[in-house]
Specification:
This protein is α/β, with parallel strands linked by helices. The protein has 15 helices and eight strands. Strand 1 and strand 2 form a beta hairpin. It is globular.
Length: about 350
Amino acid sequence: MNMLAATLAALVALVLALMAVTRIGVVMIERRHPPAGVIVAANGTDMHLVRIPAGADADLPPIVFLHGASGNLHDAMTIHADRLRGRADLVFVDRPGHGWSSRGPAANALPDGQAATLAAMLDELGIEKAIIVGHSFGGAIAASFALNHPDKTVGTVFLAPVSHPWPGGISWYYTLTAIPVVGWLFSETLALPGGWWRAEGGTACVFAPNRPTPDYADRTHLDLLFRPAHFRANASDVASLYDYVTEVSPRYREIETPSVIITGDKDTIVLPSIHSKGLARDLQDAELVRIHNLGHKPDHVVPDLVVAALESVAGRDRDLQALARQAEARLAADAFGPLDRCLDSEEIRKEVEAAGYRLE
């Protein structure tokens, strides 16, 4: 009995110590990465955004950038703000529950709820219509926005998007964190130290096989993700995504606004054979741009092509396929990391191999 009591006391002490480490870590992270923009109340949600106004000679419509899972507005802003500054009204936004945005109502757990909050945010900003850019998970929200708010949509640019139901599962930590009580305990004790430990390797896997942007984690304020509430919101988003896209993807044929889809044939995070090709098939007015030797980060690896895609959606004549071939020539020697080290489970590994990927 004494041994059992001692063991339980040790476990409680360990949990409390890890919770204390997490609380201290949260304070450190938030001091290092304070809000960069303003808070706009929309649809019961405090939306944190950075808005860079259009210049006098702006040649593009307003553009809204939506980050993927595990991200925040700095992911897009660090690479695109200077490239597009003055050319358009630019809005970089933390999705609900991410970065410095509040989670808001329960509907924000699904892409259509986040799209509705985004639409309300644009109303508050006085923006009538915009090009919506969505990377990865942000692609599902961009599709939902175009589907449910066509009057506010100039067009969409999808970057390595997730959009359709896929075989296999999701990473174990998403599943675990989405479990009531257990997920709360995990996020309050192990997520932050584990996230710090895995940040460099995780970044390399997201970019693989391409070389990551220098100082990516620091420049994009990546460790905001490891705060418990942000971590739980992210896990909730991902855990509910499969059922959502299964229900909604048959409606993509209703989307009439123009779209460009940029994807890489080495992306093992979101398989283009399912998602990007599925969007190209289902959307009424879409151009698919497929790039050899590109992984999951076209926003960072081929940013000039992203700018050209924005110009194309805005109605300018751009030869995106020729630009893609130029990008491939540059990427031919960019083989930074092997793909097989970046798969979180045997189930996901089998899914990737079944799609015809060669793991090097």
